Please model this.
Amino acid sequence: MKQSQMLIPTLKEIPADAEIKSHQLLVRAGYIRQIASGIYSFLPIGRRVLRKVEEVVRQEMEKIGAHEMMMSSLQPSELWKESGRWNTYGAELMRIDDRHEREFALGATHEEVVTSLIRDEVKSYKRLPLTVFQIQNKFRDEKRPRFGLLRGREFLMKDAYTFNESFESLDESYDKMFNAYTNIFRRLGLNFRAVIADSGQMGGKDTHEFMVLSEVGEDVIAYSDTSEYAANIEMAPVVTTYEKSTAALKNMEKVATPDQKTMQGVADFLGHGLEEGLKSIMFKVDDRFVMVVTRGDHEVNDVKLKNLYSADIVELASEEKTKELLGTGFGSLGPVDVPEEVEVVADLAVEMLVNVSCGANEEGYHYVNVTPERDFQVTQYADLRFIQEGDPSPDGQGLITFARGIEVGHVFKLGKFYAEKMNATYLDDQGKAQTMVMGSYGIGVSRTVAAIVEQYHDERGITWPANIAPFQVHLLSLNSKKEEQQQLADQLYDELIDAGIEVLYDDRKERAGVKFADSDLFGIPLRLTVGKRAGEGIVEMKERVTGNQSELEQSEILSVVSNWLKQ
Model:
């Protein structure tokens, strides 16, 4: 394609709102443009990359027997009410009313729609297992869209769904999808890890996230330094063995701690380490109020709390409600003498402590020499904290270390979560009605494009892997006023196109420096430059990633370029 005829608006300056490299480079290189906060258009060169990523996804889906379809983005609320998610999904679900005041949602995901479709169309075990997928725009009303394509309100997603007769059959489908995802991200050249994850609003259990390793990732991965174990930090169990303190018990006392609102401030004021204090945080777990107590140097893991109660919604209690229940704000909370309507649960480490400090539920006061079970009662002890670097790996091999990751894929074993709620059944070989067993699988296609750029760039621009670059070759004619240059460039363009090679031909009337800068910015793998030696039939070839350069005669260009691309 001729660059003079394409919409590729490049920018010299970094956009003011672009915080990370993928956002900066995709905007500067003319791949995307923002329409509103969290909403982007893919311009022609960006659409080409997006389409190539889609094709890799399609190929691997078809290899495992998945069939592509397209479902409506506009979804009636009745389906979401059947599953119970209309009121629990959260504010991210975009809801609209039509002219008849009928409620709809813009598709954030399609479990409800696909379940209603399959329950109406598939009635026999002979049609199972069944795998369908689509590649479609999704909508989520993110509170704070940021990082360009990594956290948007509209994005392109591949979502797939499996319907099975049994959990054993689901395991087989899940493994096929897991392997397909592994192949997809390997083909895209990504450095990634598959990690144990939480199912969140999707329901079901047993799930993995595919994380692209990147310092700009919003998720923290906990992984073993000696084994293959990896999990989202929310899901990594703590297997540390705690020993009961043998210190002599002291009498609990109330002491003044004026102006001390933080754990560190209280610890410094009282002259002890963070691990010798109790951290107490109030949560609303569905319709009950729960105080979670951890050691002062540990952090409460709200996902573990949610799983402990099998809750739909877990959120921090408001300070107003906390004051109403306990008579004090967040800075002085503690588990001693809490009212009956507040349940107290504690992390396993707390059970082993003696003579520690905690809030006295009175502004500006704390207790010292507090011992669990003597001075306060705990409903239950459980693993309720985030794992920390240096903790033993849950698989018993090595120690935990952290890395940051960008979630690009997620696979779920939904089980019967939706099928039971929405009455998705089939007749088995005995003619008896049985509930279908489901799986759900997603890849953020547009997000993956950004993740690739995060791993493939340098100080001059993007460095696309060759199989997903918008073009294979960038052909530059440095001076269109020179007849020999223009003639040779035109000939090469036609030859390359006839050979089936994807070429972007920079035929613009621009300075050589502008063309070189744009070429580096685009990140096309090979650059052919027709310059001063055009009269001799000599062209310069340069590899974008390595910077290796060579001069080629016109007669050998096609074979050299073809062989390079094959490699």
Remarks:
- The domain at 253-382 is CATH 3.90.960.10 (YbaK protein).
- The first strand starts at residue 32 and ends at 36.
